[in-house]
Amino acid sequence: MEPTPSFIVRAAQAADADAIAGFNAAMAFETESKRLRAEVLGAGVRRLLAEPGLGFYRVAEAQGEVIACLMVTTEWSDWRNGRFWWIQSVYVQPAWRRRGVFRALYDDVREAALRESDVCGLRLYVEHENTVAQATYRSLGMQQTDYLLFEELKPGVVFLQDDQASSSG
């Protein structure tokens, strides 16, 4: 068996924006068959990288190439007087799946959360049909909650390509 090439986990930098946007586009299509508008997605990635108050990205890198990413945003919980870190925009290149890359990203975020005194937990959402991802999250110690996710988008929000309805997602 060929040894698994090593990779590192690090904070994303502005130079990673195109890779992250590409991963997000691939993830949206792969998991939801949605084609995101590249200009909106790219601007969104660059804005988060430029404004740390919005959240942060972590990436995995192998031999100078970004191979995976995840984004963390926060939610204030008055019940707990603390912040939840929401894990979003998770993507691992297909050739790197099932090789510990997501686990390394998750462990990195979990360890960072433990160092922050007001972070009370980690959360994420997953498609109902994505049973592989659900099994992965359970194996990391995450538990399914009793909550359903509801949303209402502001009129005029357009994030999908013109050939798809942009009122969902």
TrEMBL record:
It comes from the Bacteria. Residues 7-164 form the N-acetyltransferase domain. Keywords: Acyltransferase, Transferase. It holds the Pfam family Acetyltransf_1. GO terms for molecular function: acyltransferase activity, transferring groups other than amino-acyl groups. This is GNAT family N-acetyltransferase. The lineage of its organism: Bacteria, Pseudomonadati, Pseudomonadota, Betaproteobacteria, Burkholderiales.
